[in-house]
Amino acid sequence: MRIVILAGGVGGAKLVLGATRAFASADVTVIVNTGDDFRHLGLHVSPDVDTMIYTLSGKSNRELGWGREGETWQFMAALRSLGGEDWFALGDSDLALHVWRTMRLSRGDTLGAITGDVARAWGIAATILPMSDDPVATHVHTVDGILEFQRYFVERRCEPVATGIAFDGADQARPAPGVVAAIESADAILIAPSNPLLSIDPILAVAPIRAALAAARAPRIAVSPIIGGKAVKGPTAKLLADLVRRADNATIAAHYAGLIDGLLVDTADSDEAVGLPTASTATLMVSDDDKARVARAAIAFARATGRR
Length: 308
Ligand code: FO1
Hints:
Blueprint: E1 3-7, H1 10-22, E2 28-32, E3 38-40, E4 43-45, H2 47-56, H3 74-81, H4 92-106, H5 111-121, E5 127-130, E6 137-142, E7 145-148, H6 149-155, E8 162-168, H7 179-185, E9 188-191, H8 196-204, H9 207-215, E10 220-223, E11 226-227, E12 230-231, H10 234-243, H11 249-255, E13 262-266, E14 278-281, H12 288-304
Parallel strand pairs: 1-2, 1-9, 2-5, 9-10, 10-13, 13-14
Antiparallel strand pairs: 3-4, 6-7, 6-8, 11-12
This protein binds ligand FO1.
Ligand FO1 binds next to helix 2 and helix 6.
Protein backbone atom coordinates (compact mmCIF):
# COMPACT_ATOMS: atom_id res chain seq x y z
CA MET A 1 0.00 0.00 0.00
CA ARG A 2 1.92 3.05 -1.22
CA ILE A 3 0.66 6.12 0.65
CA VAL A 4 1.54 9.65 -0.46
CA ILE A 5 0.80 12.59 1.83
CA LEU A 6 1.00 16.30 0.93
CA ALA A 7 1.89 18.17 4.09
CA GLY A 8 3.06 21.36 5.73
CA GLY A 9 4.53 21.56 9.23
CA VAL A 10 2.98 20.59 12.55
CA GLY A 11 -0.48 19.27 11.49
CA GLY A 12 1.07 17.52 8.52
CA ALA A 13 3.75 15.85 10.59
CA LYS A 14 1.11 14.49 12.99
CA LEU A 15 -0.80 12.74 10.20
CA VAL A 16 2.41 11.42 8.64
CA LEU A 17 3.57 10.07 12.00
CA GLY A 18 0.15 8.42 12.37
CA ALA A 19 0.48 6.84 8.92
CA THR A 20 3.91 5.43 9.81
CA ARG A 21 2.41 3.94 12.99
CA ALA A 22 -0.68 2.49 11.29
CA PHE A 23 1.04 1.22 8.11
CA ALA A 24 4.56 0.22 7.06
CA SER A 25 6.78 3.33 7.36
CA ALA A 26 8.65 2.41 4.19
CA ASP A 27 5.35 2.63 2.25
CA VAL A 28 4.80 6.27 3.27
CA THR A 29 6.07 9.15 1.12
CA VAL A 30 5.51 12.72 2.21
CA ILE A 31 5.74 15.71 -0.13
CA VAL A 32 6.57 18.70 2.05
CA ASN A 33 5.94 22.41 1.59
CA THR A 34 9.09 24.47 1.11
CA GLY A 35 7.38 27.84 0.62
CA ASP A 36 8.23 28.65 4.27
CA ASP A 37 11.97 28.23 3.58
CA PHE A 38 14.09 31.31 3.98
CA ARG A 39 17.60 32.51 4.58
CA HIS A 40 18.19 33.66 8.11
CA LEU A 41 21.53 34.75 9.56
CA GLY A 42 23.12 33.38 6.38
CA LEU A 43 21.56 29.94 6.90
CA HIS A 44 19.02 28.07 4.79
CA VAL A 45 16.13 27.25 7.15
CA SER A 46 13.50 24.78 5.92
CA PRO A 47 10.93 24.73 8.75
CA ASP A 48 8.34 22.28 7.43
CA VAL A 49 10.95 19.80 6.20
CA ASP A 50 12.64 20.01 9.60
CA THR A 51 9.39 19.58 11.54
CA MET A 52 8.83 16.41 9.48
CA ILE A 53 12.38 15.15 10.08
CA TYR A 54 12.27 15.86 13.83
CA THR A 55 8.80 14.33 14.21
CA LEU A 56 9.55 11.11 12.31
CA SER A 57 12.90 10.63 14.07
CA GLY A 58 11.33 11.16 17.51
CA LYS A 59 13.29 14.36 18.13
CA SER A 60 10.52 16.97 17.90
CA ASN A 61 9.72 19.50 20.57
CA ARG A 62 6.08 18.64 21.24
CA GLU A 63 5.57 21.68 23.44
CA LEU A 64 6.65 24.25 20.85
CA GLY A 65 5.42 22.28 17.83
CA TRP A 66 8.67 23.11 16.01
CA GLY A 67 12.37 22.54 16.67
CA ARG A 68 13.97 19.81 18.81
CA GLU A 69 13.12 18.36 22.18
CA GLY A 70 15.51 19.13 25.05
CA GLU A 71 16.76 22.18 23.16
CA THR A 72 19.13 24.74 24.68
CA TRP A 73 19.33 28.38 23.62
CA GLN A 74 22.89 29.57 24.28
CA PHE A 75 23.40 30.61 20.66
CA MET A 76 20.34 32.88 20.83
CA ALA A 77 21.52 34.41 24.14
CA ALA A 78 24.95 35.10 22.66
CA LEU A 79 23.40 36.52 19.49
CA ARG A 80 21.14 38.81 21.53
CA SER A 81 24.13 40.07 23.53
CA LEU A 82 25.71 41.12 20.23
CA GLY A 83 22.60 43.06 19.23
CA GLY A 84 21.73 40.39 16.63
CA GLU A 85 18.22 39.71 15.33
CA ASP A 86 16.35 37.46 17.73
CA TRP A 87 12.79 37.38 16.38
CA PHE A 88 13.33 33.88 14.94
CA ALA A 89 14.67 31.39 17.47
CA LEU A 90 17.30 28.86 16.40
CA GLY A 91 18.10 26.35 19.15
CA ASP A 92 21.63 25.08 19.66
CA SER A 93 20.94 21.55 18.31
CA ASP A 94 18.58 22.78 15.59
CA LEU A 95 21.39 25.04 14.39
CA ALA A 96 23.49 22.01 13.39
CA LEU A 97 20.92 21.01 10.76
CA HIS A 98 20.79 24.53 9.28
CA VAL A 99 24.59 24.84 9.16
CA TRP A 100 24.96 21.36 7.64
CA ARG A 101 22.25 21.96 5.03
CA THR A 102 23.57 25.41 4.08
CA MET A 103 27.11 24.06 3.69
CA ARG A 104 25.94 21.19 1.49
CA LEU A 105 23.69 23.45 -0.63
CA SER A 106 26.70 25.75 -1.21
CA ARG A 107 28.63 22.67 -2.44
CA GLY A 108 25.88 22.02 -5.01
CA ASP A 109 23.86 19.30 -3.27
CA THR A 110 20.08 19.52 -3.60
CA LEU A 111 17.59 20.03 -0.79
CA GLY A 112 16.05 16.65 -1.65
CA ALA A 113 19.37 14.80 -1.48
CA ILE A 114 20.32 16.47 1.81
CA THR A 115 16.89 15.70 3.29
CA GLY A 116 17.21 12.06 2.23
CA ASP A 117 20.66 11.79 3.81
CA VAL A 118 19.50 13.31 7.11
CA ALA A 119 16.47 10.99 7.17
CA ARG A 120 18.74 7.97 6.59
CA ALA A 121 21.22 9.14 9.24
CA TRP A 122 18.38 9.35 11.75
CA GLY A 123 16.74 6.03 10.85
CA ILE A 124 13.58 7.40 9.20
CA ALA A 125 12.07 4.68 6.98
CA ALA A 126 9.45 6.91 5.35
CA THR A 127 10.48 8.96 2.30
CA ILE A 128 10.54 12.73 2.88
CA LEU A 129 10.54 14.72 -0.37
CA PRO A 130 10.67 18.52 -0.42
CA MET A 131 8.14 19.66 -3.04
CA SER A 132 10.95 21.22 -5.08
CA ASP A 133 14.70 21.68 -5.04
CA ASP A 134 14.14 25.10 -6.65
CA PRO A 135 13.44 28.17 -4.50
CA VAL A 136 9.78 28.99 -3.83
CA ALA A 137 9.08 31.74 -1.30
CA THR A 138 5.67 32.38 0.22
CA HIS A 139 4.91 36.08 0.62
CA VAL A 140 1.84 37.40 2.38
CA HIS A 141 0.33 40.58 0.98
CA THR A 142 -1.02 42.60 3.89
CA VAL A 143 -2.41 46.03 4.64
CA ASP A 144 1.13 46.80 5.95
CA GLY A 145 2.80 45.73 2.70
CA ILE A 146 4.25 42.47 1.37
CA LEU A 147 5.85 40.32 4.06
CA GLU A 148 8.15 37.32 3.73
CA PHE A 149 6.27 34.37 5.24
CA GLN A 150 8.29 34.02 8.47
CA ARG A 151 8.16 37.80 9.04
CA TYR A 152 4.35 37.62 8.76
CA PHE A 153 3.97 34.39 10.75
CA VAL A 154 6.57 34.62 13.49
CA GLU A 155 7.67 38.24 13.77
CA ARG A 156 4.25 39.80 13.19
CA ARG A 157 2.22 36.86 14.64
CA CYS A 158 -0.19 36.98 11.64
CA GLU A 159 -1.50 40.32 12.93
CA PRO A 160 -1.47 42.44 9.74
CA VAL A 161 -4.70 41.82 7.81
CA ALA A 162 -3.82 39.64 4.82
CA THR A 163 -5.06 40.61 1.36
CA GLY A 164 -3.38 37.85 -0.67
CA ILE A 165 -0.64 35.23 -0.81
CA ALA A 166 2.03 34.75 -3.47
CA PHE A 167 4.41 31.85 -4.02
CA ASP A 168 7.36 33.53 -5.68
CA GLY A 169 9.29 31.19 -7.95
CA ALA A 170 6.56 28.52 -8.05
CA ASP A 171 5.89 29.02 -11.76
CA GLN A 172 9.50 28.17 -12.61
CA ALA A 173 10.00 25.54 -9.90
CA ARG A 174 10.26 21.91 -10.95
CA PRO A 175 8.98 19.15 -8.68
CA ALA A 176 11.86 17.55 -6.76
CA PRO A 177 12.98 14.17 -8.15
CA GLY A 178 10.55 11.45 -7.10
CA VAL A 179 7.57 13.72 -6.39
CA VAL A 180 5.55 13.17 -9.57
CA ALA A 181 6.48 9.47 -9.74
CA ALA A 182 5.27 8.99 -6.15
CA ILE A 183 1.90 10.58 -6.98
CA GLU A 184 1.57 8.52 -10.17
CA SER A 185 2.34 5.22 -8.48
CA ALA A 186 0.46 5.84 -5.20
CA ASP A 187 -2.33 3.56 -3.99
CA ALA A 188 -3.78 6.37 -1.87
CA ILE A 189 -3.05 10.10 -1.68
CA LEU A 190 -3.83 12.19 1.39
CA ILE A 191 -3.76 15.94 1.90
CA ALA A 192 -2.84 16.60 5.53
CA PRO A 193 -4.93 18.95 7.73
CA SER A 194 -2.28 21.63 7.22
CA ASN A 195 -3.21 25.21 6.40
CA PRO A 196 -4.64 24.96 2.84
CA LEU A 197 -3.61 28.51 1.95
CA LEU A 198 -0.15 28.63 3.52
CA SER A 199 1.05 25.02 3.55
CA ILE A 200 -0.71 23.07 0.79
CA ASP A 201 -1.22 25.78 -1.84
CA PRO A 202 2.55 26.34 -2.29
CA ILE A 203 2.87 22.63 -3.18
CA LEU A 204 -0.06 22.88 -5.61
CA ALA A 205 1.43 26.07 -7.09
CA VAL A 206 4.15 23.88 -8.66
CA ALA A 207 2.13 23.14 -11.82
CA PRO A 208 3.39 19.60 -12.56
CA ILE A 209 2.51 18.54 -8.99
CA ARG A 210 -1.00 19.93 -9.30
CA ALA A 211 -1.39 18.26 -12.71
CA ALA A 212 -0.16 14.91 -11.35
CA LEU A 213 -2.62 15.12 -8.47
CA ALA A 214 -5.49 16.07 -10.80
CA ALA A 215 -4.67 13.09 -13.04
CA ALA A 216 -3.85 10.58 -10.29
CA ARG A 217 -5.55 7.19 -10.50
CA ALA A 218 -5.33 6.67 -6.75
CA PRO A 219 -8.12 7.85 -4.44
CA ARG A 220 -7.36 11.30 -3.02
CA ILE A 221 -8.61 12.27 0.42
CA ALA A 222 -8.08 15.56 2.26
CA VAL A 223 -8.22 15.60 6.05
CA SER A 224 -10.03 18.80 6.98
CA PRO A 225 -8.32 21.30 9.31
CA ILE A 226 -11.80 22.36 10.54
CA ILE A 227 -13.10 21.03 13.85
CA GLY A 228 -16.50 22.01 15.19
CA GLY A 229 -16.96 24.63 12.46
CA LYS A 230 -13.65 26.33 13.31
CA ALA A 231 -10.09 26.05 12.04
CA VAL A 232 -8.02 24.14 14.62
CA LYS A 233 -5.04 26.42 14.46
CA GLY A 234 -5.23 30.15 15.08
CA PRO A 235 -3.32 31.25 11.98
CA THR A 236 -5.49 29.12 9.69
CA ALA A 237 -8.63 30.66 11.17
CA LYS A 238 -7.20 34.19 10.98
CA LEU A 239 -6.04 33.81 7.38
CA LEU A 240 -9.24 32.12 6.21
CA ALA A 241 -11.19 34.93 7.86
CA ASP A 242 -8.97 37.59 6.21
CA LEU A 243 -8.99 36.04 2.75
CA VAL A 244 -12.10 33.92 2.28
CA ARG A 245 -14.24 35.09 5.19
CA ARG A 246 -15.45 31.54 5.92
CA ALA A 247 -13.72 28.70 7.70
CA ASP A 248 -15.93 25.67 7.07
CA ASN A 249 -15.72 22.32 5.32
CA ALA A 250 -17.63 23.49 2.25
CA THR A 251 -14.90 26.13 1.76
CA ILE A 252 -12.16 23.51 2.16
CA ALA A 253 -13.91 21.13 -0.27
CA ALA A 254 -14.35 23.92 -2.84
CA HIS A 255 -10.72 24.92 -2.40
CA TYR A 256 -9.54 21.41 -3.37
CA ALA A 257 -12.19 20.91 -6.10
CA GLY A 258 -10.93 18.60 -8.87
CA LEU A 259 -8.02 17.42 -6.72
CA ILE A 260 -9.77 15.26 -4.10
CA ASP A 261 -12.38 12.51 -4.09
CA GLY A 262 -13.44 12.97 -0.49
CA LEU A 263 -13.02 15.02 2.65
CA LEU A 264 -12.43 13.41 6.05
CA VAL A 265 -14.17 15.67 8.56
CA ASP A 266 -14.45 15.77 12.31
CA THR A 267 -17.41 13.93 13.85
CA ALA A 268 -18.70 17.30 15.14
CA ASP A 269 -19.07 18.47 11.51
CA SER A 270 -20.33 15.24 9.96
CA ASP A 271 -23.79 16.53 9.01
CA GLU A 272 -22.52 19.52 7.01
CA ALA A 273 -23.11 19.17 3.24
CA VAL A 274 -19.87 19.98 1.43
CA GLY A 275 -20.61 18.85 -2.13
CA LEU A 276 -18.21 15.90 -1.94
CA PRO A 277 -18.29 12.48 -0.27
CA THR A 278 -17.28 12.76 3.38
CA ALA A 279 -16.33 10.36 6.14
CA SER A 280 -15.83 11.35 9.75
CA THR A 281 -13.67 10.58 12.75
CA ALA A 282 -12.42 12.64 15.69
CA THR A 283 -9.72 14.51 13.76
CA LEU A 284 -7.99 16.31 16.64
CA MET A 285 -4.58 14.63 16.91
CA VAL A 286 -3.15 14.84 20.41
CA SER A 287 -1.87 11.35 21.27
CA ASP A 288 0.03 9.05 18.94
CA ASP A 289 -3.03 6.78 18.99
CA ASP A 290 -5.13 9.70 17.66
CA LYS A 291 -2.61 10.21 14.85
CA ALA A 292 -2.69 6.54 13.82
CA ARG A 293 -6.50 6.47 14.05
CA VAL A 294 -6.92 9.52 11.79
CA ALA A 295 -4.44 8.04 9.27
CA ARG A 296 -6.34 4.72 9.34
CA ALA A 297 -9.69 6.48 8.87
CA ALA A 298 -8.33 8.47 5.90
CA ILE A 299 -6.97 5.32 4.24
CA ALA A 300 -10.17 3.34 4.91
CA PHE A 301 -12.12 6.20 3.30
CA ALA A 302 -9.70 6.21 0.34
CA ARG A 303 -10.25 2.47 -0.17
CA ALA A 304 -14.04 2.91 0.10
CA THR A 305 -14.10 5.38 -2.80
CA GLY A 306 -13.53 2.36 -5.07
CA ARG A 307 -10.91 4.13 -7.18
CA ARG A 308 -7.90 2.14 -8.42
N1 FO1 B 1 8.00 29.48 15.06
C1 FO1 B 1 7.79 30.48 15.94
O1 FO1 B 1 6.65 30.80 16.22
N2 FO1 B 1 8.87 31.16 16.48
C2 FO1 B 1 10.15 30.84 16.19
O2 FO1 B 1 11.07 31.48 16.70
C3 FO1 B 1 10.39 29.75 15.29
C4 FO1 B 1 11.66 29.30 15.00
C5 FO1 B 1 11.83 28.17 14.18
C6 FO1 B 1 13.12 27.67 13.91
C7 FO1 B 1 13.29 26.55 13.11
C8 FO1 B 1 12.17 25.93 12.56
O3 FO1 B 1 12.34 24.83 11.80
C9 FO1 B 1 10.89 26.40 12.81
C10 FO1 B 1 10.71 27.53 13.61
N3 FO1 B 1 9.43 28.02 13.88
C11 FO1 B 1 9.26 29.08 14.74
C12 FO1 B 1 8.24 27.40 13.27
C13 FO1 B 1 7.91 27.93 11.86
O4 FO1 B 1 8.05 29.30 11.76
C14 FO1 B 1 6.45 27.70 11.47
O5 FO1 B 1 5.74 26.94 12.38
C15 FO1 B 1 6.31 27.04 10.15
O6 FO1 B 1 7.03 27.65 9.15
C16 FO1 B 1 4.83 26.94 9.72
O7 FO1 B 1 4.61 25.68 9.26
